[in-house]
């Protein structure tokens, strides 16, 4: 008796779709790859052919150069052998997609990374009915419940206004989080110029080219220190306490990440203003999504798998961990 989904083969370096002779998010170069989104732990260079959304392909080309890309828009399907693959919004970052795989009457959704709360920089997550839901569990513990995004942005603006002689330096991952912080500031009425580290320039330009409203962004290079007082400055997390930050006017160090819920992480990174903002689902969003979709089985790719698998077992949902390697949390 064949097992549900036995035509998918989880390997440490990705998920192989046997009847399609293709991989989902492989961490090693493959002849045929379906890619959920542009973060480096899911999108690698060197594939023979890549199926992804137009936005994800643009991100991959920005990072890795020209791709042998086959663009697939949201709601569109492609056939690879006997397998039908449909790309559906995941709500994670610009261009992020879940991939619905259909084969001989079975429906499996590879969700990639996802979140459920609104984000002005990307299309919202769309739940898809399926037999098997393949999910992440980055924040798969009940302690992780993300606060309201607007409240975190208000904290940032309040600190800025209370310290007009200083700047607020926000560390945020270069793809997705940096642009989301900027867009959320604009949504809350902060229209002043925002200064950015040079490492953020290309991806901010890409987001703007795809219609995301980021407002006036000014590279820090060459700007007098005094001119940045009373402004927000954005940089990659690695530059927060780097020599680069010495060119700024007495910066208040902030970091936008779901991991800022963990006080020890904030202290380790010398963060004065933790901003709890995640591009991943929190515990409630993970469990609510599974309840909404009601799959027969749940497969967990990475993160805090044990708690989510236990939660499923308590509700008579068959669940297992796939033990994929190479998936990291830095994109949060």
UniProtKB/TrEMBL annotation:
Stored SUPFAM superfamilies: Metallo-hydrolase/oxidoreductase
InterPro entries: MBL, Metallo-B-lactamas, RibonucZ/Hydroxyglut_hydro, Xnuc_lig_assoc
Keyword line: Exonuclease, Hydrolase, Ligase, Nuclease
GO molecular function: exonuclease activity; ligase activity
Gene3D superfamilies noted in UniProt: 3.40.50.10890, Ribonuclease Z/Hydroxyacylglutathione hydrolase-like
EC nos: 3.1.-.-
Entry-linked NCBIfam families: Xnuc_lig_assoc
Protein name (Swiss-Prot/TrEMBL): Ligase-associated DNA damage response exonuclease
Organism: Sphingomonas olei
């Amino acid at each position: 008796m064949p097992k549900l989904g036995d035509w998918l083969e989880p390997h440490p370096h990705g998920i192989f779709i046997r009847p399609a002779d293709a991989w989902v998010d492989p961490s090693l170069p493959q002849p045929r790859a379906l890619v959920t989104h542009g973060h480096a732990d899911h999108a690698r260079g060197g594939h023979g052919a890549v199926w992804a959304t137009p936005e994800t392909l643009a991100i991959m080309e920005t990072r890795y150069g020209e791709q042998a890309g086959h663009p697939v828009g949201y709601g569109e399907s492609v056939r690879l052998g006997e397998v039908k693959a449909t790309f559906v919004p995941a709500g994670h970052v610009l261009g992020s997609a879940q991939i619905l795989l259909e084969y001989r009457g079975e429906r499996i959704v590879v969700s990639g990374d996802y979140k459920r709360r609104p984000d002005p920089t990307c299309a919202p997550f769309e739940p898809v009915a399926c037999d098997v839901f393949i999910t992440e569990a980055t924040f798969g513990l009940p302690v992780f419940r993300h606060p309201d995004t607007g409240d975190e942005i208000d904290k940032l603006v309040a600190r800025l206004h209370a310290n007009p002689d200083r700047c607020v330096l926000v560390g945020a991952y270069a793809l997705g989080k940096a642009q989301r912080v900027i867009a959320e500031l604009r949504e809350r009425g902060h229209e002043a110029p925002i200064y950015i580290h040079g490492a953020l320039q290309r991806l901010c330009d890409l987001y703007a080219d795809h219609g995301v409203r980021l407002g006036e962004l000014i590279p820090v290079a060459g700007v007098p220190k005094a001119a940045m007082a009373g402004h927000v400055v954005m940089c990659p997390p690695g530059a927060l306490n780097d020599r680069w930050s010495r060119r700024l006017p007495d910066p208040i160090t902030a970091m936008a990440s779901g991991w800022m819920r963990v006080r020890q992480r904030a202290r380790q990174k010398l963060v004065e203003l933790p901003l709890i903002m995640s591009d991943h689902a929190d515990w409630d969003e993970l469990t609510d999504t599974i309840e909404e979709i009601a799959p027969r089985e749940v497969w967990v790719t990475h993160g805090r798998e044990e708690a989510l698998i236990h939660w499923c077992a308590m509700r008579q949902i068959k669940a297992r961990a796939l033990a994929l390697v190479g998936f990291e949390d830095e994109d949060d």
